[in-house]
Amino acid sequence: GQCIAVCPTGALTEVNNVNQVWNALDKKDKTVVVQVAPAVRVAIGEEFGLEAGAISTGKMVAALRALGFKYVFDTNFAADLTILEEASEFIHRLKEGKNLPILTSCCPAWVNFVEYTYPDLLNLPSSCKSPQEMFGSIAKNYFAPRVINIKPEDMYVVSVMPCVAKKYECSREELGQDDVLDVDMSITTRELAKMIKEAGIDLSNLKDECFDIPLGESTGAADIFGATGGVLEAALRTAYEWVTDETLDNVNFTQVRGFEGIKEASVDIAGTTVNVCVASTLGNARKVMDEVRAGNSKYHIIEIMACPGGCVAGGGQPYHHGDYDIIKKRAAGLYNIDGSKQLRKSHTNPAIVALYNDFLGEPYGEVAHKLLHTHYFDKSKVYANATTETLEVAEVTA
Ligand code: SF4
């Protein structure tokens, strides 16, 4: 995934889906819905002269509405949902003492890498779909039929992602129901900026607007998904409270923050020491996973993101030209949003609580399994002699 940002082949393989989104917005028979990933809101301003890390959420929402999207929703909502499912799955595996460590599964470049490189360990990635896909599934299978009374196939879901690999993820056939894919089209932060410019809108001068509800509500735990360590921190906030039945007063797991390629920490949860690890880049992932394969790993949870620093540095973001200060400012923006929110634990999101009460039932239950979980494939035969580098290129061109 990060290949596009750091290697010249990115320029040759970059796909542009802007016209498809314009065409979808013109279709009268489709309800076009958009979701935006956390990392986009702290980077898109750079395309309009704002500082890296400037929090542009409200202006971005206003721009999306002006472009003609019927509902402007937030991938963050689904990030909170992912945490409820993934924390439940982790607790389940911990109790059984099986299939540990659990590996995060929200980065498609990483998921692809596991399928090619560690097909013997496919019991380890969380079966949770990524937030992009959970969002699409809930939009089409809940919001469409139950809230606005349309068929799933009459809804067109666009995602705005910091990522080029998300384009490939949304085309994976198993990520949908009855031949209706969860997400129809994924565009990058740069492509959204292009659309806004084509429409003659100056994002920096727009008045702030709010996401639509209910799929626009989120907690601070969701915002930090965009920085390395954030998914793990968000999962710990929920797992801790669920296992101990106590309120976690200090929700900041600062040990897993920052830009080192491999970070680790130990957290006491009701007398059990939970060892966690965070790796970013596929090279670091390989180091951690080789230990797991060899049976030498002490970890219970491992978060892996393909891009160095996580999605804030994604290949679909405004170019940073190797300037890591830009990446750090974007990450700081996300931690600022988290810190400024009243609700910072995914399981306290009232829209998520209502979704389980009205529709999903229990986290990790039957309906959740059908709509929010997936499975993986052994792809080792496809690229039998692949290296990390060739896989990254394969990912970008897939
Ligand atoms: Fe995409 Fe990079 Fe984020 Fe992975 S870490 S989801 S490749 S932006």
TrEMBL record:
Domain of life the protein comes from: Bacteria
Keywords, ordered alphabetically: 4Fe-4S, Iron, Iron-sulfur, Metal-binding, Repeat
Keyword Iron carried by entry: yes
GO molecular function: 4 iron, 4 sulfur cluster binding; ferredoxin hydrogenase activity; iron ion binding
Name of this protein: 4Fe-4S dicluster domain-containing protein
Organism per entry: Romboutsia weinsteinii
